[in-house]
Amino acid sequence: MKLLFLVLIFITSLNALNVYANEDTHVHLEMSDGSSAKVDQARFDAFSEGLKQAKILVVSVKGMVCDFCARGIEKTFKRDPDLLKIDVDLNFGKVLMAYKPTAKINEKSIATTIRDNGQEVVKIDTLY
Hints:
Helix content is 38%, strand content 23%. It is an alpha+beta fold. The longest helix has 20 residues, at 2-21.
């Protein structure tokens, strides 16, 4: 029974890899290395709306290759009670984070958390 289960997992994995190998629009093919200074302005404007007093960070990240990476980052940081809002932009390799005005921002901790998720922080810009 265990062997059958392992064989099914293996076949399913191969099938999934084949689907992505043939998919021309998969984000993995257009991975941003996070070094671009670009931020999608419309996305940033929508994100920052109503957050006039918040501390907003733009974190440039290398190694985000798919939606799973983005959701992992979001899920991890949403546990922080000082975080008001987070948005991950795979196209530009940016993570937008809004913190309470009273929050103490620890950039080293943010970088470590993202590294533990499998990506690398290239730069953190703090906007007040």
